[in-house]
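Why do we bother with holo predictions? Because pocket geometry can differ from the apo form. Keep that in mind while you read this record for adenosine-5'-diphosphate.
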Amino acid sequence: MSESTLEALGGGAAPPAQFGHDALVVCDNLVRIFQSGSVEVQALQGLDLLVDQGEMVAVVGASGSGKSTLLAVLSGMDAPTAGRVRVAGWDLMAMQARDRVAYRREMVGFLWQQTSRNLLPYLTARQNVALPMTAPRRHRPARADELLDLVGVGHVADRRPSEMSGGEQQRVAIATALANGPQLLLADEPTGELDTATAREVFEALRTANRESGTTVVVVTHDAAVSHLVERTVAIRDGRTSSEVLRRDDDGDVTHEEYAVMDRAGRVQVPRDFREALALTRRVRLALEADHVAVRPDGSAR
Ligand code: ADP
Ligand code: MG
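The structure, written out:
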């Protein structure tokens, strides 16, 4: 089936003039191709993602699915090959080098998995947090202490990283990432090196940053259990968003509902176990019912 036929099946409704115009993060058909010699790797293959201001979203997916590439693009460290990416009105595709520096310093905070990569070893926690600050110098130590208190590690303000636990280091790193009050906090498997209990503490600190300072958080994790701690979990497969799990709190009940993601052209990925159960291959029959769309095997096939 040709691309145009598939789009025609989308119902003919014109797409909204601006996809996700009110979202903080807009990834629209994002493509990132790495070229090394004659080998081409498509790390992102038309990824769509919207994140609203104030949300905390977890990103999950197998190793190599494109999670780190997505975060590198959102942080301004890497530029996509094609597509559209906008954060708080900043067009990351069109950004010049000087804007990129300002964007990275003022708009985003970043947290790496490796605790040693987040902090300078010869500075105390307070000095680490104060270092990237653009506020007047005399305000910096007090502001650093406030941020350390916020994420529950005020007691390590005068210690160097080697005198802290892994969990304390990551929480100091969160305070450092918040130094300039970024709109967006990005964390790439920040709990990957930590045991479960400590990982939980670091996640709680991210939540606190999200709730108390209103920072939007996008956190990559391989820990499926964290979907209980966030409102929305986005799954990436082969460089595209494939499904989302939403957490709903009704009368104190926590429920999880899984959704498939439909892209702007109307494409939906049917999970492998569904396809295998009904031997869905290549061609399927679609039927519009009163309240759902039915997908059936092509009875005439072969
Ligand atoms: P994840 O974080 O989900 O494990 P990545 O975003 O790191 O995945 O990588 C996605 C794909 O892109 C992988 O196949 C990886 O090998 C490839 N890739 C990532 N960065 C580079 C690079 N700098 N050069 C070449 N290939 C890369
Ligand atoms: Mg990664």
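Residues 52-78+96-269 form a domain with the Rossmann fold fold (CATH 3.40.50.300).
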